[in-house]
Specification:
Layout lengths: L1 H9 L11 H32 L8 H25 L5 H44 L3 H25 L8 H6 L7 H43 L1
Helix pairs in contact: 1-2, 1-4, 1-5, 2-3, 3-4, 4-5
């Protein structure tokens, strides 16, 4: 779930996807989020069935609370994302107003999922080894702790990519320019630079011609004076 959700978050942040249409990236983003939601539902059903089969109480730990909150928030996020951003019925002003909330809630849900995963693997390890076995630096405990650190580093990297302004997808007009038929933005910048340079050259030429004309007038006046 963490890997699929992280892919859905950074799908807009990959520079090689900026050449693709915004609609295509919306469908990919929605598809990845839907896949993560299906995996979350299947996982919750499996956990409840296992607890009921083993006569284990449900929803007593902080891990279960955080996990259920993440699933509920994720379902609301997915529903609003479909209605507001994927379907072409919501007005542009509503989309613009809800976009910061949509982005922030997505990152919050991602951080909540990571927290639930860390608490889940720790809880499972303590149940399997016991408090005495876990505190004795067993190989299983060290392996799970290293896995938790890797999950934290991975989550921090995804959040860093999602929060960098230069990783943000350019506006749609710039994205159109980046398509193969339109060239790259650097081409436009280069063209504008060349235009500015050509204008500057023209101004320099005009200035030089004006200076040459004044110099010729001065020479003519000097010649006339010498003749008189």
């Amino acid at each position: 779930i963490v890997s699929v959700l992280s892919s859905a978050i950074i799908v807009y942040r990959l520079p090689w996807t900026w050449k693709c249409s915004k609609l295509l990236m919306k469908f990919i983003h929605a598809g990845l989020n839907t896949t993560a939601m299906i995996l979350a539902i299947v996982s919750m059903v499996a956990v409840f069935e296992y607890h009921n089969a083993m006569n284990i109480p449900n929803m007593y730990s902080l891990h279960s609370w955080i996990g259920l909150i993440a699933v509920i928030l994720y379902s609301l996020q997915l529903f609003l994302g479909f209605v507001v951003f994927l379907l072409p019925f919501a007005p542009i002003r509503l989309r613009a107003a809800l976009m910061p909330i949509h982005v922030y809630s997505g990152l919050l849900i991602f951080a909540t999922v990571i927290a639930a995963a860390l608490m889940g693997i720790t809880e499972k390890l303590i149940f399997a080894l016991g408090s005495a076995g876990y505190s004795s630096f067993s190989p299983e405990g060290i392996f799970v702790n290293c896995l938790g650190l890797l999950i934290v580093i991975f989550g921090a990297l995804i959040l860093w990519m999602a929060s960098r302004p230069h990783w943000k997808r350019p506006p749609e007009e710039n994205a159109k320019v980046q398509r193969p038929n339109g060239g790259a933005p650097e081409g436009i910048e280069a063209e504008s630079t060349m235009t500015d340079c050509s204008n500057a050259d023209k101004s320099d030429v005009g200035f030089n011609s004006e200076a040459a004309r004044k110099r010729n007038l001065k020479l003519d006046e000097a010649g006339q004076r010498s003749t008189m």
